[in-house]
Amino acid sequence: MINAPRPLHTPPRQASIGTRLLSLHAGSTYVFLYAPIVLLVIFSFTKDTFGVRWTGFTLDWYTKLFNDQRMMSAALNTLWVAAVSTVLSTICGTLLALAMERYRFRGRDGLDALLYMPIVIPEIVMALALLAFFSFSFGIFESLTGITLRMNIWTVIVSHVAFSISFVTVVVRASLKGFDVRLEEAAADLGADPRTTFWRITLPLIIPGVIGGALLAFTLSLDDFIISFFTVGPGTNLLPIEVYGRVKRAITPSINAISTIMLVVSMLLVFLSQFMQRRADER
Amino acid sequence: MSMVPSVELPPDQRQTRTRSLVGLLTPGVLWLGVFFVLPLLIVVVYSFATNSPTGKVIWEFSLDSYRVLWGKELFYNAYIRSLVIGLEVTLICALIGYPLSLHMVQAPPARRNVLLFLILIPFWTNFLVRTYAWMLLLSNNGLINSLLVALGFAKQLLYPSEGAVLVGLVYGNLPFMVLPLYASLARFDFTLMEAGSDLGATVVQRFLRIMLPLTAPGLVAGSVLVFIPTVGQFVVSDLLGGAKVDMLGNLLQRLFTRSNPPNWPLGSALALVFMALLTIVVLVYFRTTTEEDR
């Protein structure tokens, strides 16, 4: 057979096979990424008491979960930690972002490097450093005052803020990059004092970035296991730690159910953050 | 970069500017100073302290911890284990992630956003939950074993095992590889490949000589982002590896919280050496990427 002359600029034939192979590869990778998650969700509704095969639909595991006092208090604690640490880290991170983007000052490069450290440092190193810090400083405090301090929910909150600040700063700085300073100058020219300018001009314009940073901080805190594991005292129970403890013992459909809820919450947060980002991009 | 007014401000305005700068910096810098920098310094202090046989820290200077680090066979095993598993996971992620990113950048824009979003979702979901999902799949009566039985094979003990740890780690860290690779391939000029083809280069030559070198920064960034959490984690090796797979993260966790007696000075020294090695890796990475970008 004689080949028809190939038009110019059509990719050679191997490329189309290549493209097809790439699609196949991509398809199987997405199956690899989603199959375990989908199965986990399905198996949270199975009647099977081991929770690993499908034997019929039930919502029992969810009702059981909501009656599980330990799990529920752990979930509430985790939400509280995430909420408080998000507020604190969003405030600190937004202020730092404004300072970094708006001002030149001595030590700015050093601070820039410092801000990246909590992001790149292995989480376990930060976790054990915080544990060492609390134990060390509580020891000194006790020898000075005679009062014994213990790690509790507040040590977790403080630690979560320490790693979230950097993430918030990165997100807010990105939203400040396209900011038109002339708007602030105009406000100042029209007689607004710096405080009014901040609340009326600056904040409304960067709010999508701030909310994006806050959502990231909230998700990081909800999902964190390693730092919570090291900095929580023996008396406080947090959701990932409770789940970890139970998973180590056995697979149960109740764990499938709580895992499903955690998955759904995370996904809602991603959707929300994407939505905010899109709105920020539209400006 | 930053938008600093170029005109000289009158003194009173400059003063308010300085005051507001101090106000902006104080909360964050104070927090990071006390709860990030100081803890790291305390780890340095601990690493030079002495551990008593009961596990209580004695504040006497010693280099014992650093000596033990080089001496004990257990530690060599953990270093080499971590290094090998870390490299394996990084390599597998690169082999899966590169063609995936290539597919993503070649897709039409609307589809591309969906594909990227689908990579982001697992990235935001709980690592523990994602690891647990694999326990379900690989368990003795789980789906994979049921399939094996249905196909007439014998049941396999799929976990705890090193293979299960590898799968769990690749699964958990793949997005870290894909995101920078995607960013770097999205900037790649595909007409260069056509030019290569016009000049008679084969597919392999074009890939190795044009595409790979130009997207190397993304590949290196992805590798660093996968390698660091892989080596430092302990959850996946604990849950999917049983006690069989011991990595640096597991060792650190035991030295600080679980072993009887604990050994904080030794754990601190190990953490610092680990950080020092990673810093070298990251510095090398920044050296290579900044050169590529120029």
Short synopsis of the structure:
Chain A is an all-alpha fold. Chain A has helices spanning 13-42, 60-66, 69-102, 108-120, 123-145, 153-176, 182-189, 194-223, 226-231, 239-249, 253-282.
Q: Can you describe this structure?
A:
The complex is a heterodimer of chains A (283) and B (294). By secondary structure, chain A is mainly alpha-helical. Chain A has 2 domains: 18-58, no CATH class; 60-282, MetI-like fold (Orthogonal Bundle), CATH 1.10.3720.10. Chain A is built from 11 helices and no strands. In chain A, α3 packs across α10 and α7 (182-189) runs antiparallel to α8 (194-223). Chain B is mainly alpha-helical and 294 residues long. Chain B has a single domain, classed as MetI-like (MetI-like fold), CATH 1.10.3720.10. In chain B, α7 crosses α10. Chain B contains 12 helices and 2 strands. The radius of gyration of chain B is 25 Å and the shape is globular. In chain B, β1 and β2 (57-58) form a beta hairpin. Chain B has a two-stranded antiparallel sheet with strand order 1-2. At the A-B interface, α1, α3, α4, α5 and α6 of A face α1, α3, α4, α5 and α9 of B.
Architecture blueprint of SSEs:
The complex is a heterodimer of chains A (283) and B (294).
Chain A: H1 13-42, H2 60-66, H3 69-102, H4 108-120, H5 123-145, H6 153-176, H7 182-189, H8 194-223, H9 226-231, H10 239-249, H11 253-282
Chain B: H1 11-47, E1 50-51, E2 57-58, H2 64-71, H3 73-106, H4 109-124, H5 127-138, H6 143-150, H7 162-186, H8 191-198, H9 203-232, H10 235-241, H11 248-258, H12 264-293
Helix pairs in contact in B: 1-12, 2-12, 3-7, 3-9, 4-7, 5-7, 5-10, 7-9, 7-10, 8-9, 9-12, 11-12
CATH topology of the largest domain in chain A: MetI-like fold
Shape of chain A: globular
Name the CATH superfamily assignment of the largest domain in chain A: MetI-like
Helix content of chain A: over 70%
The helix/strand order of chain A is HHHHHHHHHHH
Count of discrete domains of chain B: 1
Instruction: From the alpha carbons, calculate the radius of gyration of chain B and give it in angstroms.
Output: 25 Å
Helical element count of chain A? 11
Q: Provide the spatial order of strands within the biggest beta sheet of chain B.
A: 1-2
Unreliable stretches of chain B: 1-6
Tell me the domain tally of chain A.
2
Strand residues, percent of chain B: under 5%
Could you name the CATH class of chain B? Mainly Alpha
Q: For the CA atoms, what is the radius of gyration of chain A?
A: 25 Å
Unreliably modeled segments of chain A: 4-10
DSSP summary: helix tally of chain B: 12
Overall form of chain B: globular
